[in-house]
Amino acid sequence: MVFYFTSDVVSPPVTLFMGADKHENEDLIKWGWPEDVWFHVDKVSSAHVYLRLAPGQTIDDIPNSVLDDACQLVKANSIMGNKMNDIDIVYTMWANLKKTPSMEVGQVAFHKDKEVRKVRVVKRINDIVNRLNKTKREAFPDLRQERENRDRLEREDKKKILRDKKEKEKEEEKRKKEEAELRSYATLMKKENMSTNYDGNDSDDFM
Q1: Which residues does 117 contact at the CB level (< 8 Å), separation at least 6?
Q2: Where in this protein does the record put region Disordered (predicted)?
Q3: Residues with Cβ < 8 Å from 10, sequence gap 6 or more?
Q4: Residues 107-120: pLDDT tens digits?
Q5: For labelling, which of 17, 177, 188, 192 has a CA lying 20 to 30 Å from the CA of 112?
Q6: Per-residue pLDDT reduced to its tens digit, 178-197
Q7: pTM of this prediction?
Q8: Measured distance CA(123)–CA(35) in Å, rounded
Q9: Would the pLDDT of 136 be above 50?
């Protein structure tokens, strides 16, 4: 089961989501999207909260208000972290999550520590947590199927882009060929006109 929350601090609203338990977290780790940003309380057990970026967005594009919502949601869903003040929330792109066979269920590391960002959360803000909890809904998505559908659409888009590129190249090649033929025809006509206008007499020859 996956829990979904709507953050309406931006327009259009964005969705935050997390697994119901460590087993769901494992599936989210396995079938995450390249557009997903992962959030967790630093050095403390907590929920794994995700934000799915829009196509073309980067981690730098996350508005501060959305970042606040994600961090408060993570803190609120950590047994220890929820009771603590001045805690750090770490976040990174899904592709930076590292999972090895020896790790426990739901446990992750990072491929590159320098790509992990950190935010200090001074305290729980009930207004934010309550607002998000009012939007909470449960679902049982087929995470694998969703990822496969996403990858299929991406492949189709790439194929379309490649087809469009080739078509434009063909059109450009055809245009250049037609221009070359026109230039060649114009040159030929010019030579023919010069030949036709020449009468064979020297201009200084008077009778």
Answers
A1: 59, 90, 91, 92
A2: 147-207
A3: 63, 65, 66
A4: 899 999 999 999 99
A5: 17
A6: 887 787 777 777 766 666 55
A7: 0.78
A8: 28
A9: yes
